[in-house]
Amino acid sequence: MGLCYSSLLSQAQPKLARRIVPADNSCLFRSISYLITNDTDSPSELRQLAAGIILSNPHRYSSVVLGKERQEYVEWLLRDESWGGAIELSVLSEHYKVELDVVDIQSQRIDRFGEGAGFRDRALLIYDGIHYDPLVMEGVGGAGGQRMFPVSDARILEKASQLAREAFQARQYTDVAKFSLKCLACGTGLQGQSEAQRHAMETGHINFGEV
């Protein structure tokens, strides 16, 4: 009976956990969609939303900020195979008035998009170098878990950091500075994310495979 009770008690304790979304180049958009709407099936809608905001704010999202001409960047962003990143996190944080906090497994850093903007709530994501997943508190907030947390409560960031430490110790990350890639369009061998990004900018090739 004691073991049974302990097991039930353990199951009842709220726990910050990772919700796995498909690794289909839209993981960031699926993760944010899940956190905001409890739906992972609308990544293209978030791509279109972010693209529209970028186009309508030429001074804020200049070619210098984007790394390429705005129209070119937007066309790239709207492709299903393009990965979202810091720019899209910033855009969508401001649009939804929610701080989006990303804990990086390898560096153990937490990047807080919307920090200091006066938003009431925050949502959490975990990043392994090439893939984003949303974080939720299981055991509260209904079957899907609690997806939003008060910005005023920093304890949830400590829990996210602990989750990242455990993932790091289990080597559940990809070292993007060292992993080997091949361009699927021309077969060029590349080392790390920076070479892949440079190759994409120079050639327009955007499909890569890990080797």
Automatic annotation (TrEMBL):
Cellular compartment(s): Cytoplasm
Record keywords, A-Z: Cytoplasm, Hydrolase, Protease, Thiol protease, Ubl conjugation pathway
TM spans, by residue?
Answer: none
Q: Which GO terms describe its biological process?
A: endoplasmic reticulum unfolded protein response; ERAD pathway; protein deubiquitination
Q: Where is the OTU domain?
A: 16-138
Q: Catalysed reaction per UniProt? A: Thiol-dependent hydrolysis of ester, thioester, amide, peptide and isopeptide bonds formed by the C-terminal Gly of ubiquitin (a 76-residue protein attached to proteins as an intracellular targeting signal)
| Signal peptide segment | none
**Which molecular function term from Gene Ontology is one that the record holds?**
cysteine-type deubiquitinase activity
Q: Which domain of life is it from?
A: Eukaryota
Which GO CC terms are listed, alphabetically? cytosol; nucleus
The record's EC number reads: 3.4.19.12
**What role does it play?**
Hydrolase that can remove conjugated ubiquitin from proteins and may therefore play an important regulatory role at the level of protein turnover by preventing degradation.
* PANTHER family the UniProt entry points to: HIV-INDUCED PROTEIN-7-LIKE PROTEASE (PTHR13312), UBIQUITIN THIOESTERASE OTU1 (PTHR13312:SF0)
* Record's protein name: Ubiquitin thioesterase OTU
